Amino acid sequence: MLAVASLASARYMMYLTGQHQIIPEPEMVSEITHVAIAFMQSSLFNRKSPSDWPLFATVEEVRSKFPEGTKIMIAIGGWGDTEGFAKASTTVNTRRHFAKNVKAMVDATGADGVDIDWEYPCGNGEDYKRHTNYDRKGKEYRNYPKLLTDIRYALGRYAILSAAVPGLRRDMIAFTKQTLPAISRSLNFFNVMTYDLMNRRDNVTKHHTGVELSLDGINAYLEAGVPPQGINLGFAFYVKWFRTDPNGGCEENPIGCKTVLMEDPRTGADLGQCGAFAWDDRVPKELAFSFRLAQRDGKYDEVGGGFYYWDSEENIFWTWDTPEAIARKFPLIVKEKGLGGVFAWGLGEDGPEFNHLKALTEEVKVYKGVHPDPVVVEVPEPELPEPEDDLHDYKDEL
User: Fold this and answer.
1) From which residue to which does any coiled coil extend (predicted)?
2) Based on the structure, what is the number of domains in the chain?
3) Which side of the chain, N or C, has fewer Cβ within a 10 Å radius?
Protein backbone atom coordinates (compact mmCIF):
# COMPACT_ATOMS: atom_id res chain seq x y z
CA MET A 1 0.00 0.00 0.00
CA LEU A 2 2.90 2.33 0.67
CA ALA A 3 3.29 4.98 -2.02
CA VAL A 4 2.75 8.65 -2.82
CA ALA A 5 1.05 10.20 -5.81
CA SER A 6 4.08 12.28 -6.77
CA LEU A 7 7.36 13.53 -5.42
CA ALA A 8 6.05 17.06 -5.91
CA SER A 9 3.44 16.42 -3.20
CA ALA A 10 5.73 15.21 -0.45
CA ARG A 11 4.15 14.66 2.96
CA TYR A 12 4.84 17.27 5.61
CA MET A 13 3.39 16.12 8.93
CA MET A 14 3.28 17.73 12.36
CA TYR A 15 2.32 16.26 15.70
CA LEU A 16 0.16 18.67 17.69
CA THR A 17 0.45 17.94 21.40
CA GLY A 18 -1.59 18.78 24.44
CA GLN A 19 1.55 20.05 26.17
CA HIS A 20 2.18 22.69 23.47
CA GLN A 21 -1.07 23.57 21.73
CA ILE A 22 0.11 26.75 20.04
CA ILE A 23 -0.43 26.93 16.27
CA PRO A 24 1.31 29.71 14.31
CA GLU A 25 -0.20 31.99 11.71
CA PRO A 26 -1.75 30.38 8.60
CA GLU A 27 1.09 31.37 6.29
CA MET A 28 3.54 29.45 8.48
CA VAL A 29 1.58 26.19 8.17
CA SER A 30 0.63 26.52 4.51
CA GLU A 31 2.85 23.61 3.41
CA ILE A 32 1.74 21.15 6.11
CA THR A 33 -0.18 18.21 4.66
CA HIS A 34 -0.91 16.10 7.77
CA VAL A 35 -1.48 16.87 11.46
CA ALA A 36 -1.63 14.19 14.16
CA ILE A 37 -3.35 15.23 17.39
CA ALA A 38 -1.46 13.51 20.22
CA PHE A 39 -2.41 11.47 22.14
CA MET A 40 -5.44 9.29 22.77
CA GLN A 41 -4.69 6.44 25.19
CA SER A 42 -4.62 2.94 23.73
CA SER A 43 -6.49 1.39 26.69
CA LEU A 44 -9.57 3.43 25.76
CA PHE A 45 -10.11 1.21 22.72
CA ASN A 46 -10.20 -1.96 24.80
CA ARG A 47 -13.31 -0.83 26.67
CA LYS A 48 -16.63 -2.45 25.90
CA SER A 49 -18.43 0.58 24.45
CA PRO A 50 -16.56 3.88 24.82
CA SER A 51 -18.97 6.80 24.65
CA ASP A 52 -16.53 9.68 24.50
CA TRP A 53 -13.18 10.33 22.82
CA PRO A 54 -11.17 12.75 25.00
CA LEU A 55 -8.78 15.13 23.26
CA PHE A 56 -7.51 18.59 24.16
CA ALA A 57 -9.10 19.95 20.97
CA THR A 58 -11.67 18.69 18.51
CA VAL A 59 -10.77 17.67 14.98
CA GLU A 60 -12.94 20.51 13.69
CA GLU A 61 -11.09 23.09 15.80
CA VAL A 62 -7.72 21.87 14.58
CA ARG A 63 -8.85 21.58 10.98
CA SER A 64 -9.98 25.22 10.96
CA LYS A 65 -6.41 26.40 11.66
CA PHE A 66 -4.78 24.68 8.70
CA PRO A 67 -5.17 24.99 4.93
CA GLU A 68 -8.10 23.32 3.27
CA GLY A 69 -7.25 19.73 2.45
CA THR A 70 -4.84 19.20 5.37
CA LYS A 71 -5.40 15.70 6.76
CA ILE A 72 -6.19 15.69 10.47
CA MET A 73 -5.37 12.44 12.24
CA ILE A 74 -5.52 11.10 15.80
CA ALA A 75 -2.34 9.66 17.29
CA ILE A 76 -3.05 6.72 19.60
CA GLY A 77 -0.53 5.65 22.22
CA GLY A 78 2.82 7.33 22.89
CA TRP A 79 6.18 6.58 24.50
CA GLY A 80 4.98 5.01 27.73
CA ASP A 81 1.69 3.63 26.43
CA THR A 82 2.20 -0.07 25.75
CA GLU A 83 -0.19 -2.09 27.91
CA GLY A 84 -3.34 -1.17 26.02
CA PHE A 85 -1.81 -2.26 22.73
CA ALA A 86 -0.31 -5.40 24.20
CA LYS A 87 -3.69 -6.47 25.58
CA ALA A 88 -5.49 -5.63 22.35
CA SER A 89 -3.10 -7.63 20.18
CA THR A 90 -3.40 -10.97 21.98
CA THR A 91 -6.35 -12.65 20.23
CA VAL A 92 -8.42 -12.25 17.09
CA ASN A 93 -11.39 -11.04 19.15
CA THR A 94 -9.42 -8.46 21.16
CA ARG A 95 -7.81 -7.17 17.98
CA ARG A 96 -11.13 -6.82 16.21
CA HIS A 97 -12.71 -5.12 19.22
CA PHE A 98 -9.87 -2.60 19.36
CA ALA A 99 -10.12 -2.00 15.61
CA LYS A 100 -13.90 -1.59 15.76
CA ASN A 101 -13.50 1.11 18.42
CA VAL A 102 -10.82 2.87 16.37
CA LYS A 103 -13.27 3.02 13.48
CA ALA A 104 -16.01 4.32 15.80
CA MET A 105 -13.68 7.03 17.07
CA VAL A 106 -12.71 8.13 13.55
CA ASP A 107 -16.38 8.31 12.56
CA ALA A 108 -17.35 10.22 15.69
CA THR A 109 -14.52 12.76 15.55
CA GLY A 110 -14.38 13.26 11.80
CA ALA A 111 -10.66 12.47 11.67
CA ASP A 112 -9.05 11.46 8.40
CA GLY A 113 -7.24 8.54 10.00
CA VAL A 114 -5.01 7.42 12.86
CA ASP A 115 -1.34 7.19 13.69
CA ILE A 116 -0.52 4.12 15.78
CA ASP A 117 2.13 5.02 18.35
CA TRP A 118 2.82 1.61 19.80
CA GLU A 119 6.42 2.66 19.51
CA TYR A 120 8.23 -0.36 20.87
CA PRO A 121 6.35 -3.62 20.30
CA CYS A 122 8.45 -6.60 21.47
CA GLY A 123 10.30 -4.47 24.03
CA ASN A 124 12.70 -1.59 24.71
CA GLY A 125 9.86 0.72 25.72
CA GLU A 126 9.69 2.66 28.96
CA ASP A 127 8.89 -0.51 30.91
CA TYR A 128 11.65 -2.71 29.43
CA LYS A 129 13.06 -3.55 32.88
CA ARG A 130 9.67 -4.45 34.37
CA HIS A 131 8.45 -6.35 31.30
CA THR A 132 11.50 -7.75 29.62
CA ASN A 133 12.01 -8.07 25.90
CA TYR A 134 12.17 -11.83 26.35
CA ASP A 135 8.68 -11.83 27.91
CA ARG A 136 7.19 -9.75 25.11
CA LYS A 137 9.01 -10.65 21.94
CA GLY A 138 7.43 -13.90 20.76
CA LYS A 139 3.76 -13.01 20.94
CA GLU A 140 4.06 -9.33 20.04
CA TYR A 141 6.32 -10.11 17.08
CA ARG A 142 3.45 -12.11 15.59
CA ASN A 143 0.56 -10.00 16.84
CA TYR A 144 1.65 -6.45 16.00
CA PRO A 145 1.19 -6.92 12.21
CA LYS A 146 -2.14 -8.64 12.84
CA LEU A 147 -3.41 -5.72 14.92
CA LEU A 148 -2.54 -3.31 12.11
CA THR A 149 -4.30 -5.59 9.62
CA ASP A 150 -7.49 -5.52 11.68
CA ILE A 151 -7.33 -1.74 12.09
CA ARG A 152 -6.90 -1.35 8.34
CA TYR A 153 -9.85 -3.68 7.66
CA ALA A 154 -12.06 -1.76 10.08
CA LEU A 155 -11.08 1.65 8.69
CA GLY A 156 -11.46 0.64 5.06
CA ARG A 157 -9.18 1.48 2.18
CA TYR A 158 -9.50 5.28 2.17
CA ALA A 159 -8.76 6.30 5.77
CA ILE A 160 -5.13 7.07 6.58
CA LEU A 161 -3.25 4.60 8.76
CA SER A 162 0.34 5.34 9.75
CA ALA A 163 2.67 4.18 12.52
CA ALA A 164 5.42 5.79 14.59
CA VAL A 165 8.39 3.40 14.57
CA PRO A 166 11.85 3.30 16.21
CA GLY A 167 14.84 5.10 14.73
CA LEU A 168 17.52 2.95 16.40
CA ARG A 169 18.31 -0.52 15.08
CA ARG A 170 18.52 -1.86 18.62
CA ASP A 171 14.83 -0.97 19.12
CA MET A 172 13.52 -2.40 15.84
CA ILE A 173 12.73 -5.76 17.41
CA ALA A 174 9.31 -5.99 15.78
CA PHE A 175 10.44 -4.52 12.47
CA THR A 176 12.36 -7.08 10.43
CA LYS A 177 12.53 -8.39 6.88
CA GLN A 178 10.06 -11.06 7.98
CA THR A 179 7.45 -8.74 9.54
CA LEU A 180 7.72 -5.52 7.56
CA PRO A 181 5.97 -6.84 4.41
CA ALA A 182 2.85 -7.60 6.46
CA ILE A 183 3.13 -4.33 8.38
CA SER A 184 3.57 -2.32 5.17
CA ARG A 185 0.44 -3.77 3.58
CA SER A 186 -1.69 -2.05 6.19
CA LEU A 187 0.01 1.35 6.35
CA ASN A 188 0.04 4.47 4.25
CA PHE A 189 3.42 5.45 5.67
CA PHE A 190 5.93 5.04 8.50
CA ASN A 191 7.00 7.91 10.77
CA VAL A 192 10.56 6.91 11.64
CA MET A 193 11.52 8.52 14.96
CA THR A 194 15.00 9.70 14.01
CA TYR A 195 15.40 11.59 17.28
CA ASP A 196 16.13 10.57 20.88
CA LEU A 197 18.87 8.51 19.24
CA MET A 198 20.80 9.22 22.40
CA ASN A 199 18.80 8.55 25.53
CA ARG A 200 19.33 7.61 29.15
CA ARG A 201 20.17 4.00 28.25
CA ASP A 202 23.37 5.11 26.56
CA ASN A 203 26.70 5.46 28.33
CA VAL A 204 28.57 7.57 25.76
CA THR A 205 27.66 10.85 24.11
CA LYS A 206 26.24 11.09 20.60
CA HIS A 207 23.89 13.31 18.59
CA HIS A 208 20.29 12.64 19.53
CA THR A 209 19.08 13.57 16.03
CA GLY A 210 22.24 13.70 13.92
CA VAL A 211 22.71 12.81 10.27
CA GLU A 212 24.81 9.67 10.70
CA LEU A 213 22.49 7.93 13.15
CA SER A 214 19.33 9.12 11.36
CA LEU A 215 20.63 7.79 8.06
CA ASP A 216 21.41 4.45 9.67
CA GLY A 217 17.84 4.20 10.96
CA ILE A 218 16.35 5.00 7.56
CA ASN A 219 18.68 2.51 5.88
CA ALA A 220 17.46 -0.23 8.23
CA TYR A 221 13.90 0.10 6.90
CA LEU A 222 15.04 0.40 3.30
CA GLU A 223 17.17 -2.74 3.68
CA ALA A 224 14.12 -4.58 5.03
CA GLY A 225 12.13 -3.71 1.92
CA VAL A 226 10.13 -0.62 2.88
CA PRO A 227 9.95 1.63 -0.22
CA PRO A 228 11.43 5.10 0.32
CA GLN A 229 8.11 6.75 -0.63
CA GLY A 230 6.57 5.11 2.44
CA ILE A 231 8.99 6.70 4.92
CA ASN A 232 8.81 10.04 6.74
CA LEU A 233 12.03 11.30 8.36
CA GLY A 234 11.54 12.65 11.89
CA PHE A 235 12.78 16.01 13.19
CA ALA A 236 12.90 17.13 16.83
CA PHE A 237 11.87 20.62 17.88
CA TYR A 238 13.49 20.31 21.30
CA VAL A 239 16.85 20.23 23.10
CA LYS A 240 18.45 17.35 25.02
CA TRP A 241 21.20 17.37 27.65
CA PHE A 242 23.21 14.65 29.42
CA ARG A 243 25.62 14.62 32.39
CA THR A 244 29.07 13.40 31.50
CA ASP A 245 31.60 11.58 33.65
CA PRO A 246 34.27 14.05 34.85
CA ASN A 247 36.84 11.39 33.97
CA GLY A 248 35.12 10.21 30.82
CA GLY A 249 37.52 11.59 28.23
CA CYS A 250 35.36 14.49 27.03
CA GLU A 251 38.36 16.83 26.98
CA GLU A 252 39.85 14.83 24.11
CA ASN A 253 36.58 14.47 22.19
CA PRO A 254 33.11 15.39 23.50
CA ILE A 255 31.55 12.97 20.99
CA GLY A 256 31.76 9.40 22.24
CA CYS A 257 32.92 10.22 25.74
CA LYS A 258 31.55 8.55 28.86
CA THR A 259 28.39 9.69 30.64
CA VAL A 260 27.36 9.16 34.24
CA LEU A 261 24.83 6.43 35.02
CA MET A 262 21.51 7.83 33.83
CA GLU A 263 18.98 5.12 34.65
CA ASP A 264 18.49 2.63 37.46
CA PRO A 265 20.00 -0.67 36.29
CA ARG A 266 17.30 -2.66 38.09
CA THR A 267 14.10 -0.71 37.36
CA GLY A 268 15.11 1.44 34.37
CA ALA A 269 13.93 4.55 36.24
CA ASP A 270 15.27 7.95 35.25
CA LEU A 271 18.02 9.07 37.66
CA GLY A 272 17.71 12.74 36.73
CA GLN A 273 21.07 12.93 34.96
CA CYS A 274 19.61 13.91 31.58
CA GLY A 275 16.59 15.70 30.22
CA ALA A 276 14.91 17.61 27.44
CA PHE A 277 12.90 20.76 26.90
CA ALA A 278 11.06 22.27 23.97
CA TRP A 279 11.82 25.68 22.49
CA ASP A 280 8.48 26.86 23.82
CA ASP A 281 9.44 25.80 27.37
CA ARG A 282 11.20 27.86 29.99
CA VAL A 283 14.79 26.64 30.31
CA PRO A 284 15.24 25.06 33.77
CA LYS A 285 16.92 27.61 36.03
CA GLU A 286 19.79 25.33 36.98
CA LEU A 287 20.61 24.77 33.31
CA ALA A 288 20.05 28.28 31.97
CA PHE A 289 23.64 29.54 32.10
CA SER A 290 25.08 26.35 30.61
CA PHE A 291 22.53 26.45 27.80
CA ARG A 292 23.37 30.06 26.99
CA LEU A 293 26.99 28.96 26.59
CA ALA A 294 25.84 26.10 24.38
CA GLN A 295 23.89 28.46 22.14
CA ARG A 296 26.84 30.83 21.91
CA ASP A 297 29.69 28.35 21.51
CA GLY A 298 28.08 25.21 20.12
CA LYS A 299 29.42 23.74 16.91
CA TYR A 300 28.44 21.44 14.08
CA ASP A 301 30.09 18.03 13.91
CA GLU A 302 30.99 17.38 10.29
CA VAL A 303 31.49 13.66 10.96
CA GLY A 304 28.31 12.69 12.80
CA GLY A 305 26.27 15.52 11.36
CA GLY A 306 24.85 17.22 14.43
CA PHE A 307 25.02 20.38 16.51
CA TYR A 308 26.45 20.00 20.02
CA TYR A 309 28.24 21.62 22.94
CA TRP A 310 30.10 20.22 25.92
CA ASP A 311 30.18 22.33 29.07
CA SER A 312 33.47 21.40 30.75
CA GLU A 313 32.59 23.23 33.96
CA GLU A 314 29.20 21.61 34.50
CA ASN A 315 29.98 18.36 32.66
CA ILE A 316 26.89 18.67 30.47
CA PHE A 317 26.62 17.49 26.87
CA TRP A 318 24.05 19.40 24.79
CA THR A 319 22.56 18.10 21.52
CA TRP A 320 19.87 19.56 19.25
CA ASP A 321 19.08 20.58 15.68
CA THR A 322 19.63 24.21 14.73
CA PRO A 323 17.90 25.62 11.63
CA GLU A 324 21.26 25.29 9.88
CA ALA A 325 21.55 21.64 10.89
CA ILE A 326 18.05 21.02 9.49
CA ALA A 327 19.08 22.60 6.20
CA ARG A 328 22.09 20.23 6.03
CA LYS A 329 20.18 17.11 7.03
CA PHE A 330 17.35 17.42 4.52
CA PRO A 331 19.37 16.96 1.31
CA LEU A 332 21.69 14.38 2.91
CA ILE A 333 18.84 12.06 3.86
CA VAL A 334 15.44 13.04 2.45
CA LYS A 335 16.66 14.00 -1.01
CA GLU A 336 19.46 11.43 -1.20
CA LYS A 337 17.13 8.55 -0.30
CA GLY A 338 14.06 9.86 -2.13
CA LEU A 339 11.86 9.70 0.96
CA GLY A 340 8.14 10.34 0.82
CA GLY A 341 8.16 13.10 3.42
CA VAL A 342 9.08 14.43 6.83
CA PHE A 343 7.45 15.05 10.18
CA ALA A 344 8.33 16.81 13.42
CA TRP A 345 7.61 16.45 17.09
CA GLY A 346 5.99 18.76 17.53
CA LEU A 347 4.51 21.91 16.05
CA GLY A 348 3.82 23.93 19.22
CA GLU A 349 7.12 22.83 20.74
CA ASP A 350 8.88 25.22 18.34
CA GLY A 351 7.10 28.35 19.55
CA PRO A 352 7.11 31.20 19.99
CA GLU A 353 9.60 32.02 17.21
CA PHE A 354 9.13 28.86 15.10
CA ASN A 355 12.63 29.14 13.64
CA HIS A 356 13.00 25.38 13.17
CA LEU A 357 9.57 25.13 11.55
CA LYS A 358 10.57 27.89 9.13
CA ALA A 359 13.81 26.10 8.25
CA LEU A 360 12.08 22.78 7.71
CA THR A 361 9.33 24.38 5.63
CA GLU A 362 11.92 26.00 3.34
CA GLU A 363 13.58 22.62 2.80
CA VAL A 364 10.21 21.03 1.98
CA LYS A 365 9.57 23.73 -0.59
CA VAL A 366 12.97 23.12 -2.17
CA TYR A 367 12.37 19.37 -2.21
CA LYS A 368 9.03 19.79 -3.94
CA GLY A 369 10.56 22.24 -6.39
CA VAL A 370 13.14 19.69 -7.48
CA HIS A 371 10.25 17.83 -9.14
CA PRO A 372 7.96 20.57 -10.52
CA ASP A 373 6.31 18.10 -12.87
CA PRO A 374 4.36 15.36 -11.09
CA VAL A 375 6.13 12.02 -11.18
CA VAL A 376 3.29 9.53 -11.06
CA VAL A 377 3.84 6.48 -8.90
CA GLU A 378 1.49 3.53 -8.96
CA VAL A 379 -0.51 3.48 -5.72
CA PRO A 380 -1.78 -0.04 -5.09
CA GLU A 381 -5.06 -0.49 -3.29
CA PRO A 382 -4.73 -1.52 0.36
CA GLU A 383 -5.29 -5.15 1.04
CA LEU A 384 -8.48 -5.82 2.97
CA PRO A 385 -8.41 -9.45 4.06
CA GLU A 386 -11.74 -11.03 4.77
CA PRO A 387 -12.19 -11.59 8.51
CA GLU A 388 -11.99 -15.19 9.55
CA ASP A 389 -14.34 -17.03 11.83
CA ASP A 390 -14.27 -15.60 15.36
CA LEU A 391 -13.14 -18.96 16.71
CA HIS A 392 -9.94 -18.90 14.71
CA ASP A 393 -7.02 -16.53 14.51
CA TYR A 394 -5.50 -15.23 11.32
CA LYS A 395 -3.03 -17.62 9.73
CA ASP A 396 0.54 -16.80 10.63
CA GLU A 397 2.13 -15.40 7.46
CA LEU A 398 5.50 -14.69 9.05
Assistant:
1) none
2) 1
3) C
